[in-house]
Amino acid sequence: YDAATLKKGMRVISAETERLSGMVEELLDFSRIQNGRFSLVFQKMDLLAELGEAVLMYTEKARREDIQIIYNEPEMLPIIYGDKNRLRQVFINVIDNAIKYSDPGDTVKIDAFRQGDNIVITVADTGCGIAEEQLQTLFDRYLHSECMDPAPHGLGLGLPLCNAIAQAHGGRIFAQSQVGVGTKITVALPDRQS
After folding, report:
1. 55 within 8 A of 111, measured Cβ to Cβ
2. Which of 43, 95, 139, 187 has its CA 20 to 30 A from that of 10?
3. For residue range 62-99, what is the model confidence (pLDDT) as tens digits?
4. Rounded to whole angstroms, how far apart are CA atoms 82 and 30?
5. Which secondary structure element, helix H or strand E, spans residue 13, and what is its range?
6. pTM: predicted TM-score of the whole model, two decimal places
7. Contact 126, 102 (CB under 8 A)
C-alpha cells in the first residue's frame, strides 16, 4: 500500500475506534441511570468555559463540512453549582447532533444567556429537522428523523442521557423543530450557587 492509502486507512480506524468507544460510554451511562447509580460531582463551575470548549471542539469539523457555527458568546454568566464534565457532555452531544444532521452550507447558531433564574443555552441548526410526532419522545428513546441516515451513527442514547443530566441539575432540555427547516435544542439550568 502507498502512504496515502495507509494514512486514510488509519484515519478510518481511528474514527471507528472513537465511535465505538463513545457507544460503550453511552451504554455504561444508560445502564447506570437505569440502576440508579448515575452519579454527578457537583462543584462551583464556569458553565461558559465548558460551553466554549465544546464549541471549539466542533469548529474545525464544521468548517471541513462547510457548516457555519455562529457562537454568540456572552461576556459573562454566573458561576453555577454543577458537574462540569457531565454538562460539557450535554453541550458536545447537542452540538454534534446539530452538525451531524446539517448539510454543507447550513448554519448552527449557539446562544447562552440568563433568563430569570435560569441559564439558557440554545443550539439551533438549519438542518433536516424532526417530525412533530417524533419530538414528543425525542429525549426518551432512540429515534431518527425521516431525513436522517437509516444506519445509526450511535445507539441513539445521547439525548436521553442529556435529559437525565439536565434533570439531575434541576434543569430541563427540550426541542423545537420543523422538517426541512431545522431544529433548536434548549438546555435550561437553574442558576444555583450550591
Report:
1. no
2. 95
3. 999 999 999 999 988 888 999 998 899 899 999 999 99
4. 20
5. helix 3-34
6. 0.78
7. yes
